[in-house]
Design goal:
With 104 residues, the chain is an all-alpha fold. It is built from five helices and no strands. The mean pLDDT is 86.
Length: 104
């Protein structure tokens, strides 16, 4: 990573939860656009950034990934889907039970 993006990712611990959630949404929109452009390299780099943000939110006391639920009403479908997927990771046991019921 270079430039502003690298600076933002290197200083991730100093960002507020609200700033991280906003950055998560920005990345989701950029991933959507990378998909439209068939730019796998850009998409993968953005995915890595999204994981870094998710890990930082998880690291915070009380697991701040729960704040991603504020993106469920976002106008971009990629942002909503990514927020839901990351949010589900907070409840692995509930998710597993749900999948087992669906498979039955």
């Amino acid at each position: 990573m270079t430039g502003l993006r690298a600076t933002r990712m290197n200083n991730i611990g100093s960002l507020s939860t609200e700033e991280l959630v906003a950055r998560f949404a920005e990345i989701g929109i950029a991933q959507y656009n990378a998909n439209l452009d068939l730019d796998t390299r850009r998409y993968n780099g953005l995915f890595d950034q999204m994981i870094i943000i998710s890990d930082e939110l998880k690291r915070r006391p009380g697991d701040h990934r729960r704040y991603l639920s504020s993106l469920y009403q976002h106008p971009n479908t990629k942002v909503r889907a990514k927020a839901a997927i990351i949010r589900l990771q907070c409840f692995p046991k509930k998710l597993e039970r749900c999948w087992r019921r669906s498979a039955a």
